[in-house]
Design goal:
Number of strands: 19
Shape: globular
Strand content: 5-15%
Low-confidence stretches: none
Bound molecules: 1,4-dihydronicotinamide adenine dinucleotide
Mean pLDDT: 93
Number of helices: 31
Structural class: alpha/beta
Radius of gyration: 28 Å
Oligomer: single chain
Helix content: 40-55%
Length: about 725
């Protein structure tokens, strides 16, 4: 019985191989499945009756998802790493050198090692379905595509096209792949077999060679032009990653060193690069986050009660504003019949218009086909009342952030829906308990906290209120899982997990604005640390009005330690208070960025009144002030079981806020700094303000020499 490669007898000379790893939900390349492929290649080579081979997946949704990442965790030494890379390189070389033609029929995920396998086949035909994705995302795991991808991708699509694909790990759908020459054609799924037969029967006579274009063709032929492309790519990588990730630089080096050398030499550079990368902490953190996010997608199964996401057929979203429209779009795009309700026809119409805009952007970028766009819109129905909700499995409430309004909505929903319908609130600063308190059936109320913009942000917090029924939580989680989100199960408190942990960080930025000589250094320090943007830029993105509303709620929930920074309070009380909501903290001018003069005036006024002198702080000191209180709050959340595991905190902060992924999340970072140092620093800072005081758990862990995660992770 074959493990993953199932081949019967050849039919009219053609060997049809079904790729189906029966024991696993997806096909992947492990040592064992690679060995089996090697045996199959041996059989093909020695069987003279075989005139052609077709590889096709037996699993819907995956061709081959990539290397089996669990193998990475089994690797104990650099030699073992080198051996694993070499194994795949040799087997794919054997595949390339088969005398008989090979065809990969690609439907579903064809990523990493899976695409390298397909690139080693003579012809690749993809289907044009939504689930089909081709790409080499190794860079996201901190490694270099090891099994020939760095050679064969440039050969297929051209050097200049391959470089950004390798450096970003971006995936392409079937049609995009066909346009770039990565596959030879993209056809409807039903036509795949026919195309394969025709290719083999005609010897591929009809396959059109890729047109490289004048510039592309020159780059492919001339080493100095390739070096120029790589020089530009290096600048781009430095700009986007600030040098925190070694893998893109290794990829660039491998490509540069590969110019004009033999295939063997190139592949040996690839092995060396991966051995080096395998020893870097960054790679370990990225692989760990990959596992956490994969596990996060399966959360509904982790309850005692599991709800199959595919059983969610009907949903509704109440409130067609910024969040509601995005959430409704996600549901409809995943094949769920979705009602979008608001109080007035014009508000629903505005929401529907936004959904249409998002769909046409997706169609334009070829993320979905025009037909899929139309189908998604067909599944979405606008409404201004609660009729027709009896069939709904889950409802997501996304109305204005006012408790009375939410109470009324949930009371109406309890009457309008069946008893098995989960009622989820998307509130960002109230608790589920508070929302549920004013409704007749609090056990049906749970939290589903999407981040803005909901169609782009990968994380959803699934919130258990004190009275939430487990089945309702599982159902709501199933809806979010169906939308493809990474889920984290959290307890009920103001700000839930992510916004609560982020609050002290954001608030500290306000204190720093008033205290440091050059406030622009705050964002610079955060970016250098690895944040996607600085806290002041984030405040400007969210809006000063919303930010200060959130900080008021946090103060109400957590008291003194979350007291809003004086500058925010001063701005609200200033003469221009009515304009504060839309005000930017940092302004862009012709000469660069600067602190908004209105904020500067408030800062100076504050300094005059309090008599404080401006300070010059190093980036390290700024980070200590921003990030250590965030770690302190995370420790509190663990203590109160808002999060069950340190892993949940890390996953939520990386996926919810973009917290420096290469650091593995705030608690991995805390371990790397050492808890005693964090506690000492917080104690020193606490002499200036009690908001820094380390919590009991952090203090206890530091004095017991404990960590949040095991040292040998
Ligand atoms: P929004 O103001 O853009 O939209 C709210 C919509 O709800 C409006 O269209 C309004 O007409 C409608 N509405 C009000 N009362 C209603 C009722 N009784 N029935 C139906 N519709 C009603 O607000 P936004 O930003 O979309 O926020 C919605 C919810 O999502 C809030 O609870 C907010 O805290 C939460 N949230 C917001 C995030 C954000 O960044 N904007 C992020 C995460 C959660």
């Amino acid at each position: 019985m074959a493990l993953m490669w199932h081949a019967g007898e050849p039919q009219d000379g053609v060997l049809w191989v079904e790729i189906n790893w029966k024991e696993r939900p997806v096909n992947a390349l492990s040592r064992d499945t690679l060995n089996e492929l090697s045996e199959l290649i041996g059989r093909i080579r020695s069987d003279s009756t075989i005139t052609g081979v077709v590889f096709k997946s037996g699993k819907s949704g995956t061709f081959i998802a990539g290397a089996d990442v669990t193998e990475f965790q089994k690797i104990r030494s650099p030699d073992e790493a080198r051996q694993f890379v070499l194994q795949g390189q040799q087997i794919f070389d054997d595949l390339v050198s088969l005398k008989v033609p090979t065809v990969a029929l690609i439907s579903g995920a064809c990523l990493g090692g899976g695409l390298e396998f397909a690139l080693a086949c003579r012809w690749r035909i993809a289907d044009d379905g939504r689930k089909t994705q081709l790409g080499l995302p190794e860079v996201m795991l901190g490694i270099v595509p090891g099994w020939g991808g760095t050679l064969r991708l440039p050969n297929a699509v051209g050097f200049a096209e391959a470089v950004p694909l390798l450096l970003t790990g971006r995936g392409l759908n079937g049609r995009q792949a066909a346009r770039k020459g990565l596959v030879h054609d993209a056809v409807p799924n039903e036509a795949l077999d026919h195309v394969a037969r025709t290719l083999l029967a005609t010897g591929g006579r009809n396959v059109r060679p890729r047109k490289a274009g004048l510039v592309g063709g020159l780059i492919d032929r001339l080493g100095p032009l390739k070096k120029l492309v790589l020089w530009q790519a290096t600048r781009q990588v430095l700009k986007t990653t600030h040098g925190h990730y070694p893998a893109p630089f290794e990829i660039i080096d491998v490509l540069r060193d590969g110019i004009g050398v033999s295939r063997e030499e190139h592949l040996s550079h690839v092995r060396d690069a991966n051995v080096r990368l395998g020893q870097k902490p960054v790679t370990r953190e990225l692989v760990r986050l990959f596992f956490l996010s994969e596990a996060g997608k399966k959360l509904p199964e982790s309850f005692g009660l599991s709800v199959d996401p595919d059983t969610i057929e009907h949903a509704a979203v109440i409130g067609a504003g910024a969040m509601g429209a995005g959430i409704a779009l996600l549901a409809a795009r995943r094949g769920i019949w979705t009602r979008l309700k608001d109080i007035k026809a014009e508000y629903v119409a505005r929401g529907m218009k936004n959904v249409r805009k998002l769909i046409s952007a997706d169609v334009k970028r070829r993320r979905i086909t025009p037909l899929e766009g139309t189908q998604a819109l067909d599944r979405l129905s606008p409404a201004t009342d609660y009729r027709g909700l009896k069939q709904a499995d889950v409802i997501v409430e996304a109305v204005v952030e006012e408790l009375d309004v939410k109470h009324q909505v949930f009371t109406d929903l309890a009457a309008a829906t069946g008893p098995n319908c989960a009622l989820a609130t998307n509130t960002s600063s109230l608790t589920v308990a508070a929302v549920a308190a004013g409704t007749p059936e609090p056990s049906r109320v749970v939290g589903l906290h999407f981040f803005n913009p909901p169609h782009q942000m990968p994380l959803v917090e699934v919130v258990r209120g004190p009275q939430s029924d487990a089945k309702m939580v599982a159902k709501a989680a199933a809806l979010a899982a169906r939308m493809g989100k990474t889920l984290v199960l959290v307890g009920d408190c103001a700000g839930f997990l992510v916004n609560r942990i982020l609050a002290p960080y954001m608030n500290e930025a306000g204190h720093l604005v008033a205290e440091v000589e050059d406030p622009l250094e705050i964002d610079r320090a955060a970016i250098e640390f690895g944040m996607p943007m600085g806290p002041l830029a984030l405040i400007d993105l969210v809006g000063l009005g919303v930010s200060s509303h959130v900080s008021e709620n946090m103060r109400a929930a957590y008291g003194e330690r979350m007291e809003p920074a004086p500058i925010w309070q001063a701005l609200r009380q200033s003469a221009d208070a009515s304009k504060v909501g839309g005000m930017k903290v940092i302004e862009k001018t012709w000469f660069g960025k600067r602190l908004n003069p209105a904020v500067l005036a408030a800062v100076n006024d504050l300094a005059r009144r309090s008599g404080t002198k401006k300070m010059i702080l190093s980036h390290e000191e700024i980070i200590q002030r921003l990030v250590y209180p965030l770690i302190n709050e995370a420790a509190r959340c663990l203590d109160e079981r808002v999060a069950e595991r340190a892993d949940d905190v890390d996953l939520a902060m990386v996926f919810g806020t973009g917290f420096a992924p290469f650091r593995g999340g705030p608690l991995r970072y805390a371990d790397s700094v050492g808890l005693p140092k964090i506690v000492q620093t917080l104690d020193r800072l606490a002499a200036t303000s009690p908001r820094f005081a380390p919590c009991e758990r952090l203090r206890r862990m530091a004095s017991a020499g404990e960590r949040f995660h095991p040292a040998d992770l």
